[in-house]
Design goal:
heterodimer; A: alpha+beta; five-stranded antiparallel beta sheet; elongated; B: alpha+beta; BirA Bifunctional Protein, domain 2; seven-stranded mixed beta sheet
Chain lengths: 836, 349
């Protein structure tokens, strides 16, 4: 929202020497965030009011004139192509150095361009900004068709004033004769442009319905500077119109207050200059006196109003009601709207005439011939306005104010002021009695607040007079009680903004300035916090993988792309989906880290073949989490376990991935078991896939991407993939560490080479060996596995080293050999091993 | 000529059907479509040398034959390479019970692993808060509307929902991807009660288009302190300490009003712009200040939703944007890099 400093100053007497910048900073520090300040005058300082003294023809051009202009204490002669030049006319004269707008639209642009930049190709031209439509061009001295020209007589479009002075033809220059401006005065002064516009961040005042107009901010400044605020008092309007209007509010809860007046003998016309200028600063195009008055009060008070053409209101009756389901209306922007029954409309006896609080209907719009109007000033319920405005994406100035919960009392003030202004601009106008339908009650308190509360919440002792002074300046009525204050909330803060003592603490503290509060460290009692096991596991896992597996951590999205899931043949029918994702191709909530890891591998393969990555993140299971219960306890959320998973490109990708998981489990001190699944997923390698179990619960897997899927993704080589559910791991205890005395007796290492059927698993060989002489075997190390024609088709050769050691004596060679023979025997019996 | 073309096509298709593996495929591919002496290639070359009329007459048929044959070859190649993969899979027996291999060595190059830069910042902050006696908590990323909004004093159709474009879940109107870590405030109060000191680092989501400065997925660190007589002065002191811990230097700050429905009063804490030292530059939009830490006194309604008596307890909460901190620390100019998984980026940290 834009706020004009001059406009503020009409309401509050600020110290003379205050700079706009200081005021902006003060507002930022205590009230609302000021995003920037625009100084309007700058552009108009070098454009002055000139009076045309003499017009003569150009020696070398039929359509150009030489014009002598009086600029107060100097005179200039310029070349001009304007069609409406007359001697004695007051014009806007751009001096050397002024910046005007470049217009690309022919034919005027060409003439104007010549005037501005001289003959094409001349180095006299000086473009400010990029050349193009509406770019600024600086006026320099130049010659047009051989005649010197110092300055330019401007059209309203060239100095951005076409909203106030719409040109009737393209070659028309701006005629200021009707205004009694002083010749030579800068336009910045003549047009009251010596003003600063504050750009207020709307988001910073969504909670302040009172700040959406100039008067509200003037009230803030009065409190901030201890300055005097002009009271906004209005005499009661005397009804002069016998005609009135009847108002019926059916939807009482959606319309706390509805005020209306019928005004006859209206003459629609242009607004006076001062009013146009006010709207111009707000960036609004003046339309006609009635609409301009309602817009003016919107920016002055923050109260939206609407004027209906009374002739078009059937039955001279306003009904505030819910729309009928599928009722149609065409709003002022020309769009036909299909309404639903929860929306609020203003209707007459027959039809809706406005989408309440948002936009009027085309069927009752004011025309140039309108002579009677119904003027509406009302308050609508915020959430309903917001819901309707959002459903049509119709965020009008009116809607954004009503959705903040406006003070119903403001509606009366604005209506009275509007009627008064209309009567000033249309002296014949007669207004009816104000019809007022009230359905509201404001909670103005009083709020009881103790000095203890104020001081303890702020954290320092407040001076009592200061507190009272601040509250009173903001419009609160304060009465002193034994231990504190009883504070009555002004109506403009009572709709939702202020209702509890904490709100009053904020008022006091922000006006004092938060930076003026002395920081003070809180004092806490020591307390033991049991560590969160999952958090610790996550951190330990990350560390183990980064340092142990030398993998790099990636972050990927929590959402999967459908194309990737399809390419992997993953079953995603039970995946949760986003209902409104901007990028709907990636709408599936991940149930595994694998799809995004595969994508990351593919992306990185363009630059590197060394890929060893991992991610830690939450996945969103198809089942429900036991502890994620709704507040009422009647619903559960999907289980959201934290898992760790990775991808590695390598020749022995599967075994490298397996090594990573084994090492991770070791680091975390958990004993996990690997089992070959009976069924593998279509994306998994049919053989190189194992599942990870702890206490019979599946907690992860190690696999290699199926070669045909690798082909689909253009991955040349083997991709190992692994994943481990850390939430499930955290539900169990890690291995207890049992200290054993260090065995001082020497070990005997004996190697064993044998051939077995290739289908025999290493795990079985290991178990058999261990079982055969477990009390003496300390460790078995696999040295080699290989296949060759010599061993025979269908067989493999295994070489392993067994470390023997006794707990209580030095092992003799015989003892070791006996144990070793047992192993050989067991392997021969158990898996048909043949010693080589 | 046309007859000849059809004949070649039929012969090729017939042969294609009889071959059994990819090696045979390669042979007949050369035979028919080989660039130098392919039967079909040669005849197509001949057509090019025909006169214009003749070329016109035969051109369409020739093209059709060429396309048909090429398509048949492509389809068969895919089929055969699929068979090839299946064959290899069935030939090679894998003993998955063999021990795993060390992962870090990739050929000759020994590459160190890397933590994600956001993880590094997160752990640095966690350590700092742990040293101050804070719990580190976690909460669900897929949340109930209640915890994300209503419990935080943001009822439906509240304007504050504007700034938080929300991902909703299909068929579950009251589920959403949390838009901030603040839902854990209510969850933590419900679970642990008061007094409490906790931080919640975590992933949050906003439904917006991504560009160099916008991401739909990013990270926050929420802080919550609830105890007896916690004051605005306490909040300021702790925030200053926190910033000193993060930025490792004394830095000029300013505290101004900021509106968040779940705090009262609410603040924006700005720091003096580190790029221009407060003189004004494009990074701070020429204001000299950078918004870094929204914070405030916990709203009594939030305490109530958390089952804590606001008459007895008060507290403050704050939210740090972790992405922003990482970007400021390293001068990263594109937020999307953080979620990109791009090793050229990640291996720098």
């Amino acid at each position: 929202m834009l706020i004009s400093l001059n406009w503020l100053k009409q309401h509050v007497k600020l110290p003379e020497d205050l700079l706009a910048k200081e005021i902006g900073l003060k507002l930022t520090m205590s009230t609302v965030e000021i995003d920037g300040i625009k100084y309007l005058g700058e552009a108009f300082d070098t454009i002055v009011v000139g009076k045309i003294l003499k017009i003569s023809s150009h020696p070398n051009a039929d359509k150009l004139r030489l014009v002598e202009v009086d600029l107060g204490n100097e005179k200039e002669t310029v070349v001009c192509g304007g069609t409406n030049l007359t001697e004695g006319m007051l014009v806007a004269f751009a001096k050397i150095g002024a910046k005007v707008q470049w217009h690309a639209a022919p034919p005027i642009s060409i003439k104007r361009a010549e005037q501005v930049i001289g003959d094409s190709g001349s180095d006299a031209k000086k473009l400010v900004g990029r050349h193009g439509q509406n770019e600024l061009v600086e006026i320099v001295e130049t010659a047009i068709r051989g005649v010197k020209s110092r300055g330019m007589i401007c059209a309203s479009t060239e100095i951005g004033l076409d909203k106030i002075f719409p040109p009737k033809s393209e070659k028309e220059i701006l005629d200021l004769s009707e205004y009694k401006f002083e010749v030579g005065a800068p336009l910045s002064v003549a047009l009251e442009m010596d003003d600063a516009l504050f750009e207020v961040d709307n988001k910073s005042m969504t909670h302040r319905p009172d700040l959406w107009g100039h008067y509200g901010l003037a009230r803030e400044l009065a409190a901030l500077y201890g300055a005097e605020l002009e009271e906004y008092v209005l005499e009661k309007i005397k009804p002069t119109n016998k005609e009135s209007i009847s108002v019926e509010v059916e939807a009482k809860d959606l319309c706390p207050r509805y005020l209306a007046s019928r005004i006859d003998n209206i003459k629609i016309s242009e607004s006076p200059l001062w009013l146009k200028l006010k709207l111009f600063k707000m960036g609004v195009r003046p339309i006609n006196n009635i609409v301009d008055i309602t817009n003016y009060l919107l920016f002055e008070l923050g109260q939206p109003m609407h004027a209906f053409d009374a002739q078009k209101i059937s039955g001279n009756k306003i009904i505030v009601r819910n729309a009928y389901q599928d009722e149609n209306m065409t709003t002022l922007d020309g769009n036909e709207r299909k309404l639903t029954k929860d929306m609020l409309v203003i209707a007459d006896a027959e039809k809706p005439v406005a989408l309440a609080g948002i936009m009027g209907a085309l069927n009752s719009e004011i025309q140039d011939t309108t002579a009677s109007i119904i003027l509406e000033s009302a308050t609508f319920r915020a959430d309903n306005i917001r819901k309707t405005a959002n459903s049509f994406d119709l965020r009008t100035e009116s809607a954004i104010r009503f959705e903040k919960s406006l003070d119903p009392n403001l509606a009366l003030v604005a209506l009275q002021k509007a009627i008064k202004m209309i009567q000033e601009l249309c002296p014949d106008a007669v207004s009816s009695e104000i019809v007022d339908v009230k359905n509201f009650e404001l909670n103005q308190g009083p709020i009881e607040i103790s000095w203890d509360f104020i001081n303890s919440r702020i954290g320092e002792e407040m001076r009592k007079e200061k507190v009272v002074g601040i509250l009173e300046a903001l419009g609160f009525s304060v009465s002193k009680k034994r231990k504190g204050l009883s504070v009555k909330v002004p109506t403009w803060r009572a709709t939702k903004d202020i209702s509890i003592p904490e709100d009053l603490v904020e008022e006091v503290a922000r006006i004092i300035g938060y930076d003026n509060i002395t920081p003070k460290m809180p004092v806490f009692e020591l307390a033991y916090n049991a560590p969160d096991k999952l958090q610790n596991l996550i951190r330990a896992s990350r560390t183990a993988i980064v340092f142990g597996a030398m993998a790099t951590e990636i972050y990927s999205y929590s959402f999967n792309a459908e194309t990737t899931l399809k390419s992997l043949d993953m079953n995603y029918f039970n995946y949760w989906q986003l209902s409104n994702a901007l990028d709907s191709s990636r709408r599936f909530l991940r149930q595994s880290l694998i799809p995004n890891l595969v994508e990351a591998v593919v992306n990185n393969l363009r630059f590197s073949s060394h890929i060893n990555i991992f991610e830690v993140g939450k996945i969103f299971a198809g089942n429900f989490g036991s502890d994620l219960v709704s507040n009422k306890g009647d619903e559960k959320l999907p289980e959201q376990n934290t898992v760790i998973g990775g991808a590695i490109m390598a020749d022995d990708a599967f075994f490298r991935a397996k090594g990573i998981v084994e090492n991770l489990a070791d680091c975390l001190n958990y004993s996990v078991e690997f089992q070959q699944p009976s069924n593998v997923e279509p994306w998994q390698h049919p053989q190189k896939t194992i599942e990870i179990f702890i206490d019979k619960e599946k907690i992860g897997f190690v696999t290699e991407l199926h070669p045909s899927k690798a082909q689909t993704f253009d991955i040349a080589g083997a991709l190992g993939l692994w994943q481990l559910d850390l939430s499930k791991l955290a539900q169990r205890d890690s291995n207890a560490i049992v200290y054993k005395k260090i065995n001082k007796y020497p070990t005997v290492a004996l190697d064993l080479s044998f051939s077995v059927d290739e289908k025999v698993h290493w795990a079985d060989i290991y178990k058999l060996s261990m079982a055969s002489a477990s009390n003496l075997i300390k460790d078995i190390e696999l040295l080699d596995v290989y296949q060759s024609d010599k061993i025979g088709v269908g067989n493999k050769s295994v070489t392993m080293r067994i470390i023997y050691q006794a707990d209580d004596h030095t092992l003799t060679n015989e003892e070791a050999q006996t144990a070793h023979a047992k192993v050989v025997d067991q392997l021969a019996k158990g898996v048909g091993a043949q010693i080589r | 000529m046309e007859e000849k073309l059809i004949k070649i096509k039929n012969a090729a298709l017939k042969e294609l059907a009889t071959i059994k593996d990819i090696d045979e495929f390669k042979k007949i591919f050369t035979k028919y479509l080989g660039r130098k002496q392919g039967v079909l290639t040669d005849i197509l070359k001949d057509i090019k040398n025909l006169g214009a009329d003749a070329k016109k007459a035969i051109g369409q048929v020739a093209n059709q034959v060429k396309n048909d044959v090429a398509a048949a070859f492509a389809a068969r190649e895919k089929e055969l390479s699929g068979l090839e993969i299946e064959k290899k899979l069935s030939e090679n027996l894998v003993d998955v019970t063999l021990p795993g291999l060390p992962a870090g060595w990739q050929g000759k190059k020994n590459q160190a692993g890397h933590f994600h830069p956001s993880t590094q910042i997160q752990y640095e902050l966690e350590d700092m808060f742990r040293s101050l006696g804070f719990l580190v908590l976690d909460g669900p990323e897929l949340e109930f509307d209640y915890y994300n909004f209503e419990g935080l004093n943001i009822p439906q159709y509240h304007p504050a929902r504007d700034s938080q474009d929300t991902f909703y879940i299909k068929d579950h109107a009251n589920w959403l991807m949390r838009t901030h870590t603040s839902p854990v405030q209510v969850r933590a109060l419900q679970k642990y009660g008061a007094p409490i000191r906790a931080i919640v680092p975590g992933r949050v989501f906003r439904n917006e288009a991504t560009d160099a400065s916008h991401e739909h997925t990013f990270y926050q660190l929420e802080g919550l302190v609830v105890d007896k007589d916690i004051s605005v002065a306490n909040l300021i002191a702790v925030m200053n300490l926190l910033l000193k811990g993060i930025l490792k230097q004394d830095i000029k700050t300013r505290l101004r009003p900021g509106y968040f429905p779940f705090v009262e009063p609410g603040f924006e804490l700005d720091i003096n712009c580190l790029i221009c030292n407060g003189k004004g530059c494009p990074v701070c939009k020429h204001s000299g200040w950078v918004e870094i830490l929204p914070c405030g006194m916990v709203h009594p309604n939030v305490l109530k939703h958390g089952g804590v008596d606001p008459e007895k307890y008060s507290g403050f909460a704050f939210g740090l944007g972790l992405n922003r901190l990482v970007m400021m620390k390293y001068g990263i100019d594109d937020i999307r890099l953080l979620q990109s998984g791009d090793l050229r980026f990640l291996q720098q940290f």
